[in-house]
Structure formats: structure tokens, C-alpha cells
Amino acid sequence: MKPRRIEPVEQPILVSPEIDLRGIRPRIQPALPGLGGSNPRGDSIGFTNAYMTFNGKPWCAVSGEIHHARYPHREWRDALRKMKAGGIEIVSTYVFWIHHEEVEGVFDWSGDRDLRLFVQLCAEVGVFAIVRIGPFCHGEVRNGGFPDWLYGRPFPLRSNDERYLALVARLYGEIGRQLEGQYFKDGGPVIGVQLENEFMHAAAPWETTPKLCLEWISGGTGGTAHIRALKKLAREAGIVVPLYTTTGWGGAPVLEGEVLPLYGGYSICPWNVTESTPIHSPTREYVFRDFHGKDQRYDVFDPPYDPAAYPFACCEIGGGMQSWYRYRAVAPAESVEAMAVVKLAGGCSLLGYYMFHGGSNPTGARGFLNEHVVPRISYDFQAPLGEFGQVRDSYRRLRRLHLFCRDFADQLLPASTALPQGAAAIEARDTDTLRFAARAAAGRGFLFFNNYQYHVQTRAHPEVAVELLLPSEQMRIPSSGGFTLKAGVSAIMPFNLDAGGVRLEYATSQPIARLEATLGVHFFFFAHEGIPPEYRFDRKEIESVESGEMDQAEEGGSLILRPPAGIQTAFSISARSGARVVFHTLTEKQSRGFSRLNLWGRERVVITEADAYESDGALKLSRRGSASTPIEVFVFPRPDARLAADGTRLRTAEEGYFSRCSIPMQARHVEPQVTRFGQGNAEVRVPAGAFDGVKELILSIEYDGDIGNAFIDGRLIADDFSNGQPWEIGLRRFRPRIEESGLYIHVTPRREGTLVVHESAMAAQQELKGKQVAEIRGITAIAEQEVTVVSERAPGR
Fold it and tell me: Concatenated DSSP letters for 613-640?
């Protein structure tokens, strides 16, 4: 995806502080008649022009990419559980042709390449799957995923040539047999496939040719006829699913009515950084746009169809970015969250991330299977879940957003996007203009703010207030004064929200989730730093309010409550209708520890600074570091039986509506044995018993240089393009080899100086003259410990 270069903005744009929502009348109607389907349980998937449906209800699905062949199959179940806990409902994976048929005619579906086992585990964990079947994939894989043996064929690839299509039919036949019985129509998890990738838009270099004269694979020919041919071959191979997709950006052909085109966006675009343009321009992904309005076309979103007739859905919202040799950017957690918020505001009904879980490239029988511009092994992607399963801050931020998508889909998805006057003129470099938008229908909806822009430092906006012109009223948020939108913050605020039988006129806090309990419906919000929480209700609907110490005020016919943020500060409203609704306002920090999991017989909220996920109805908690401080856990609704962690009964105490318990942890410190050979080389050994009692042992390497390489017995097992961040290697998957042989770290030097090109009859040689820098500054081991919390029946029951 290649956005145009953004020129500097000299003056801020004048944007109105109000949004006119009076003419918003969304027209929701059935769409994509060639798609959809049902399973034996009676579940159905359908489509309107605005969103997907599940069992006839709006479905704001969240998809996350993990490549099964880039992750150890023994760790798939754990990875999928973490993804599900992060709000992922659909797991997407590529089938890289070269990974499965490196040698012509010899298919390998074993071990980490076992596609069937992977989708079976998706079903076991409780997530759907979309399989990206190619044949061309890219994904920074060698030849874009094409096997080497396709080079030099006497027919064009990515075309309608019958000889090429015959090879594709053979590949699809193999994939079809792997997925047999696992399709949605059979009761399985596979609800969709992607045909091709970036067809007639982008390609990849042939890695079979010398690097000095790279030859590129064709971008493709044949237009919609080729996509139709691929879909026909897939169905003939038994690949019959409710959802067929293609990537829609870059002028790719769209088989209208028969495939759903998917989009995306990246904050970091290494393909735009070259020797002639070494400075990365800020992308427009952080400026609000309407992606669903008639004739709305922006940058890389220029569909050949009426945008209002199709759901706007994404498969490649950048969860980070892979390090490229010439561009090694760092992806901040805020960059992923803010882009997802902007996409939602623009009408997105399917958030799909590439990547959500990083991995490691396998090594083939005939060499490395990656593209030459990226590391030979690492495909970490700085994703929310890392190459070795590391949980990152972007995961915690996205989790709360994904829970919002799930619980508020019925009010979010039918709502249309509205922008303030002048918003279309905002440029990416503009940090003076407030960026905001709304999605509304029938006078209710959500207000969106974004004050993050990658490649540009934003500033705080003080005294922010927005006027909403609604069909029957004019609403100011907040009703008096204003709040500060700090730099880097993106936020969502509801207005006229149907909150379980009570109308919430607005809230300045961001909704996360709703949960029904015995004594009412509980809504969970969190307060952004700089934005005091404020809730305004229609006073005549309210019978009584139960609250602790908090500001209350009456304004006209409205009741305004201003609670402090925190787990103990919930307030409840009893409505004249008989409904009872409880509102919880968490701090921003608490919201990043918020999970909603199926535990001990029912769905519960868990708040903890540890990493949490569900496994067979039990709570798994993991934490990195050597500290012996207990893990604090808050659970709602309170468990109806005693809890135990790894056999030890836990004491619980009431904390507001929650149960609080402390799980004791023992200090676990592992000191690696490091032998240095100069500044840039070292041998690392782990002491006996290093893996005892730990889930994972992460080796953290601080270094300066060009490329970090890690070997066991001369075999490359991990690598890293230096970008100033610690290089992490998970060691458990290399046990017992690392216990027997140790690990050898080699840092290739970066050179400070001038590029000199030597021409000779043999070859062109490049040399950098100047000081060589290759230094290992420190190597530490970080233990990750995990405990399992179960519920045991109380005595006498």
C-alpha cells in the first residue's frame, strides 16, 4: 500500500467544532448475494451493505494474522488462546506455496506446516479461521511464496494461462484436502479464504536471480476474469466458504457481488523509503475519513464500485512492521490503537490486523525461505504478540477496543460516519487542528478523537468541547467547560447510548464492555488521562442513584455524575422502568489489564497487570521478571467457590463489586553464563535447572551494530536488524540443544563513513569506509512464570 507523499502544512485548517448529524439516515440493506452460509448448528453468516451479520445480528468481527508455518506447532494452542483473550474472533493465516511444495511435486503438511491441525486447534480454542490460499501471497517470503521451480516457466504466472492454472488447481486441491470437514458448512471454523494477494498491484523479487540484477514476478494479468477463475478452482477443490475475499487497494480488480474486497493501512511504509527519499513522510492513516459514503475515495481507497454498497472491512491494519534492512523503524503501541480507532470511525466493520502474532521463518531444504530485504529468520513484526509469544502494550490497548467492538456492535455498525466541516482538508503534518469524527444513527452513536500521528509529534489540545447537532436536540460534550486531549491519545465517547434500559446522554469516558449479572447490567468504561470522567443522564428516567463520594449536578432535565476513576468507584442507577444499571470507571492503567474470559462456569471480568487468558475454564496468569511481589487479581462477578493457584488456596477480599486476591510468586532469577570473544561476539550458556518452573526464558541482548545473529552448533536460529531496541530470543523451543551446546551470538558491524563502489571485471563491490561498530553491551535472561487459577467447591456443597 503506497500512499502519496505528504507535503508540509504551513497553516492549520479551520475545522468547525461541531458535527451536523441531523441528516444522517443510514440505509441498511442486504448485499453480496454470492456470499454467506450456515452451519449444521443453525448459525448463519450474512452481509449487508454496511457490515457482516452473525445469526442475523450486526457482527463487528476482529481478525488477527498468525502464520502457522512461522510458529512452532507445539505452541499453537497457547498462541491461539492469547489471541482469543485479546479479542480476536477470526484467525487469519497464509498458506505459503514454497513452504509446502519447496520441491516440485512433493508436498509437506507435517509439523509446523500442518494446516489441518492448526484449523482444528482454532475450533478447539473457539475462534474462526480465514485461510489466505494464494497462490501468490508475498508476506516477505521468498519469491512472494512462489516455489523456486516456478522461475523460468514458458508461461506467465498470475495469469489465465491454462498451464499456470493447472498448477494452481493442484495446489488448491492439496489445500482442499487439508481443510476437508473443517469448513463452516461442516460445523468447522473455516469461514473464509483470500484469493491471491495485491493482484495487479504489487509483486515480489525472484530470489533465484543475482541480487545485483533482481528480476520481479509479474503483478498479474487478467483482471476480474482471473479472480473468477481462482474462485472456481477453489470451489472445485472443495473450498466452499461463506466468505471469499481479495485485497482491494492499489487498483486491484474486484469481482463484484462475489468477493468482499478488504483494505488496511500501515503507519510504517519501508517500501516508500529509498536512497532518493530517505525520510519517511507521515501517512494519512491517522486522519479521519468516511470510507462508506457514496463516492468517498481517499489515497489508496479508490474502489471501482459504489463504496456505499459494500461493507468497509480490513485485513491489513498494521499491527507493527517488520524491520527492513534499509528502514528499521520502531512501532509505538499508540500507533496501532490510533489507526484502529480511525478505521472504526470511518465505517470499518471488520478490523483485521497484519500481523497480530509474530513468528520465525522456517529454513527450507534448499536454503532460507524469506525475502532478502528482511531478516532470514525473524518475522516478529513488532506485533501485539511477539515472535516468542511476548505480550506487548499494543495487545493490551487493542484488547479493550476489541471488547468494545463485540459488545456495542448493535449500536456502532448501523451508524454512518460524519465529519466536521473542513475535516477533509486536514493533512497528516497538521498538529494544530483537532481531529474528530462521529458515527451516528437515529440521534445516537459515538464520538471519536485522535491526537496521534506517526512521524509527527502532536501536541495537547486544551479546552476541547464538541457540539453535536442531533435531529431533536443540540448536545455539547462536555456540557460545560472542556477537557484536555493529550498528545498520543485516541478516544471514543458515546452519546444517547442505550445502556441497559437507561439512556446515557453522553460520557467522556470510553466504553469497554457490558456484562449481565444477577443484580443488573454492568457497563465498564475507562478514563483517559486529561479527560475527567463525566456521565449525563435523562433525569426523568431515573428513580434513584447509589454512589460513593462523587460530584453530582442537575442541569436542565439532566443528571450529571462525575466519579473518580478506579475499581472501587462504581455507581448504580435504578430506572423507573425497573432496570438496574451499574457503571464502572477504570483508570487508563487498569483498562490495559482488563480481560473478559469464560472462567469457572460463566463469563467474568478480570483486571490484573499480569497477562491473562483462559485455558479449559481455568485462568492462566503469566508475568515476566524476577520480582517476588504477588500478582494482584480482581474478578467480577465474584467466584461462588474458593480459588486455588497451583494447589494453594487463595484468600479473597471484597473490593467494590469485585473479589480481590493476591497470588504469591517466588523470585526467579536466571544468570546466563556469558563468554566474550571481542566486543561483538559471545557464547551464552544457561545454568542447570534454568528452565525449571518457568514458562519461557527470554534472552535479552543489548547491542549496537548492523545485524545480530544467534547460532546453535553453527545453525542460525534467530536474527535481528538492529534498531536500538533490545533483541529478544525465547529459549525454551531450543531446549535441549541450548543446554547441550549453548548459544553463539555474532554481531556484524555497522560502518560509519562513506559508501565507496569498486567496479571490476568480476563484480561490483560496495565498501563502507570508516569506524566499525559491533558491540554487545549486555546479555540478561528474563524468566516468565505462569500460574493456573481454578475454582474448587466450597466445603459442605
Answer: EEETTEEEEEEESS--PPEEEEEESPPS
In sequence order, the 6+-apart residues with CB closer than 8 A to the CB of 253 are: 199, 200, 223, 224, 226, 227, 246, 304
Q: What is the pLDDT of residue 108?
A: 98
Please say if the pLDDT value at position 768 is more than 90.
no
Rounded distance, CA 364 to CA 373, Å? 18
Band of residue 752 on the pLDDT scale cut at 50, 70, 90: confident
Three-state SS string across 637-698, please?
CCCCCEEEECCEECCEEEECCEEEEEECCCCCCCCCEEEECCCCEEEEECCCCCCCCCCEEE
Are 555 and 617 within one domain?
Answer: no
Of 552, 569, 591, the residue that ends a domain is 591
Tell me, yes or no, whether 536 and 614 share the same domain.
no
Tally the domains of the chain.
4
Tell me: pLDDT of 519 over 90: no
Whether residue 578 is contained in a domain is answered as: yes
Number of helices (H), then strands (E), in the chain:
10, 53
Which pLDDT value is given to residue 127? Answer: 98
Q: What's the mean pLDDT in 33-62?
A: 98
Contact 288, 423 (CB under 8 A): yes
Give me the count of residues in the chain.
797
The span from the CA of 454 to the CA of 280, in Å, is 10
Considering the domain boundaries, does residue 673 fall inside one? no
Residues 562 and 700 in one domain: no
Q: Choose among 566, 635, 624, 652: nearest CA to 595.
A: 635
Q: How high is the mean pLDDT of the chain?
A: 93
Do 585 and 602 have their domain in common? no
CB 555 within 8 A of CB 479: yes
635 and 563 share one domain: no
> Is there a single domain that holds both residue 580 and residue 652?
no
For residue range 107-129, list pLDDT tens digits in order. 999 999 999 999 999 999 999 99
E strands along 162-218, which residues? 190-195
The answer, yes or no, to whether residue 531 has pLDDT greater than 80, is yes
pLDDT tens digits, one per residue of 386-401:
999 999 999 999 999 9
State pLDDT tens for residues 412-442. 999 999 999 989 889 999 999 999 999 999 9
Structure-block grid coordinates of residue 639: 467466584
Distance CA 682, CA 680 (A): 7
Q: How far is CA 85 from the centre of its chain?
A: 12
Residues 749-767: what's their mean pLDDT?
59
Is the predicted pLDDT of residue 762 greater than 50, yes or no? no
d(CA 413, CA 415): 5
355 within 8 A of 320, measured Cβ to Cβ? yes
Residues 754-788, buried b or exposed e (16+ Cβ, 10 A)? Answer: eeeeeeeeeeeeeeeeeebbbebeebbbbbbbbbe
What is the rounded distance in angstroms from the CA atom of residue 640 to the CA atom of residue 626? Answer: 33
User: Is residue 603 over pLDDT 70?
Assistant: yes
Mean pLDDT is highest, among 278-282, 545-549, 693-697, for 693-697
pTM of the model: 0.96
Residue 445 falls inside a structural domain: no
- Output b/e per residue, 253-269; b: 16+ Cβ within 10 A: bbbbebbbbbbbbbbbb
User: Is 13 a member of any domain?
Assistant: no
Q: Which domain holds residue 759?
A: 686-780
- For CA atoms 485, 490, 496, 500, the dihedral sign is negative
Transcribe 491-540 into DSSP letters.
EEEEEEEEETTEEEEEESSEEEEEEEETTEEEEEEEEPTTS---EEEEGG
- Distance CA(326)–CA(273), nearest Å, equals 8
CATH number at residue 214: 3.20.20.80
The residue-averaged pLDDT of 185-214 equals 94
On the CB side of 576, CA atoms within 13 Å amount to: 7
pLDDT given at position 583: 98
Strand order, beta sheet including 707-712: 673-676, 681-685, 743-748, 707-712, 715-721
Nearest-angstrom CA–CA distance, 316 and 247: 9
